[in-house]
C-alpha cells in the first residue's frame, strides 16, 4: 500500500474518531434538561452527518480515480513523456502549457472518452492546478459510469 493511501486512511480514521466523539457529546447535550443545551446537541448531530457524508464521498472518489488509473495504465494510455522540470521539481510552465493544450484538444475532439478526460486531469495536476485536475477527473469518472460530460471545452466552468 502506498504512503498516500496510508495517509488518507489515517486521516479518515482520525475524522471518524472525531465524529464519534462529537456524536457522544451531542447525545449528552440532548439528554440535558436545559433547552439551549438540547438545541446545541441537535446542532452537533448535523455536523457529524455532513462530515461522514464528505468522508464517504472522498473515499469513493479516491477508489474510482485509482480504478481508472489502473485501467488506463493496463491499456497503455498513461502519458509517457517526461516534462522538463526545475531543480525544485516544478514542471516548466511552457512545457506544462504545451502538454495541457494537447490534452485539452483531445478532450474537445473526444468529449465522451473518459481516457482523454483522465489525461487532461493529469496535465492539470502536473501544472499544480489541483481544483481543475479534480474537476477533469470527476468528468472522467462520470463518463466512465455512463454519464454525459458537462463540458467539452477542456476548461472547467468558472
Tags for this model:
mainly alpha; 5 helices; 2 domains; 72% helix; 158 residues
Structural class from helices and strands?
Answer: mainly alpha
Q: What gyration radius follows from the Cα positions, in whole Å?
A: 21 Å
Secondary-structure element series: HHHHH
**How many domains is the backbone divided into?**
2
Helicity, as a percent range:
over 70%
Catalogue the unreliable spans.
Answer: none
Mean pLDDT figure: 84
Tell me about the largest β-sheet: none
Oligomer: single chain
Count of extended strands: 0
**Number of helices in the DSSP assignment:** 5
How would you describe the shape? elongated
CA-CA gap between termini? 36 Å
Describe what this molecule looks like in 3D:
There is one protein chain. With about 160 residues, the chain is an all-alpha fold. The protein folds into two domains: about 5-75; about 85-158, no CATH class. It is built from five helices and no strands. Helix 1 (about 5-30) packs antiparallel against helix 2, helix 2 crosses helix 5 and helix 4 packs antiparallel against helix 5 (about 130-145). The protein is elongated, with a radius of gyration of 21 Å. The two termini are about 35 Å apart.
